[in-house]
Every structure is written in C-alpha cells, then in structure tokens.
Design a protein that fits this description.
heterodimer; A: mainly beta; 6-stranded mixed beta sheet; globular; B: 120 residues; mainly beta; 11 strands; 0% helix
C-alpha cells in the first residue's frame, strides 16, 4: 500500500465543490515536508497541479487549491467541470526512505 | 518550452535488460535533478529513481535497487535508466520527470511515458 493515503474515489455534480484528502505520517507530511498534487487525465501523463502545499503553476485555474495541517493535506476543487474528471495524486518526501519521493494511491474524480 | 521525450520501451523477457532514454529540451538540463516514475497498468504512480543535477547523487526505490541504474549525459541532454534482471512486476509506463524549480521535492514537468512489458 502507498505511504500516503487517499480515498479511491470521489464524485460531485457540475458546479459543486469537492475535496480530496491525503493522510501521511510523522516522517513525511507531519515532518513538515510539502505536499504536491498532480492531475492525470485519462491516457495522459501526470501534470503538476499544486506545489508547495498551496501554490498553483501558471495556467492552473484558481478553482484548484491546496491546504495542509498536521499529518494531512487536502485538494479542493470548486465550480466542478466535466473536464476535471481525472485521477489525482498527492506526493511528498519521506525521511525514512532513502531519496524517496512518495505518492498517494490516487483518487478517481467522477463528475456526475 | 520544456520537453521530455522518453524512448526505449518495449516487450522483454523476464531476466533480460532494457535501457530507457529521456531527451530533454527547453531548460538547462545540467542544473536540475531528474527522476524516473513508473505506473503499472491500472495502478498508481511509483517513484523509481533520482539523479542529482551533476550526477553525483543517485537514489533508488527498494523495489529496483541493485537492478536498475540511473545516469545522465549532459552533452546530449539525456537521462537514462538501465534496467537489468527485469521481472513481470516491472511492467509499467515509465515517465521521466524534472525536479521542481522552486522546490526540488516535486516534479514540475513530465514526459509522455514509454511502456515496458516484461513477459515471456
């Protein structure tokens, strides 16, 4: 299983707000390492969505936001759109694993 | 713009070897650490290996340690992954990824991936 824990799936209707949680431990999120989020549309490579807990790269809509508290983090998507249907992954660094970047298991977002 | 283009994937028998390449452009390759990340069919992302900007530091996931070797050639702006003693569980799409500019612990650009299938 993954070092970071995400729900396998979430869903929401167009226009709604959804959140995706990412739970870690004292050797990753709880140790102060940043959380990053990636969006993977069907059949494509992952794309950076949020870095450094709550920063959006150029071109990412402000409907996407991130937060972090303690050993957990969350990705929020407001004004849900059909094109947001994708897999979302959280990622951090884990001090107990050599060199290791670690991922969550991924969350499938379905837009109803 | 940043481009990462992987190549070298294919079908290989268990126990054999394969070398993946990742051609980089649009940024100063020699200034950034580079990574390989893989995704088994229908599964999530798994970090595989990293190499520092100058090639002096390399790290591997436990699942590939001792079998895979990461390297880079700054004259060719190319990242490599030598994969030996391949197993069925190494079957995956392999992505190369550039470390972040603002924070080296994330990946700000990814290639399109190359599929490696280990099967007899």
């Amino acid at each position: 299983q993954s070092v970071l824990t995400q729900p396998p799936s979430v869903s929401g209707a167009p226009g709604q707000r959804v959140t995706i949680s990412c739970t870690g431990s004292s050797s990753n999120i709880g140790a102060g390492y940043n959380i990053h989020w990636y969006q993977q549309l069907p059949g494509t490579a992952p794309k950076l969505l949020i870095y450094g807990n709550n920063n959006r790269p150029s071109g990412v809509p402000d409907r996407f936001s991130g937060s972090k508290s303690g050993t957990s983090a969350s990705l929020a998507i407001t004004g849900l759109q059909a094109e947001d249907e994708a897999d979302y992954y959280c990622q951090s660094y884990d001090s107990s694993l050599s060199g290791s970047r670690v991922f969550g298991g991924g969350t499938k977002l379905t837009v109803l | 713009q940043v481009q990462l283009v992987e190549s070298g994937g294919g079908v290989v028998q268990p126990g054999r070897s394969l070398r993946l390449s990742c051609a980089a452009s649009g940024f100063t390759f020699s200034r950034y650490g580079m990574h390989w990340v893989r995704q088994a069919p229908g599964k999530g992302l798994e970090w595989v290996s990293l190499i520092s900007y100058d090639g002096s530091n390399k790290n591997y996931a436990d699942s590939v340690k001792g079998r895979f070797t990461i390297s880079r050639d700054k004259s060719k702006n190319t990242l490599y992954l030598q994969m030996n003693s391949l197993r069925a569980e190494d079957t995956a799409v392999y992505y190369c990824a550039k470390e972040g500019t603002a924070d080296p612990y994330h990946f700000d650009y990814w290639g399109q991936g190359t599929l490696v299938t280990v099967s007899s």
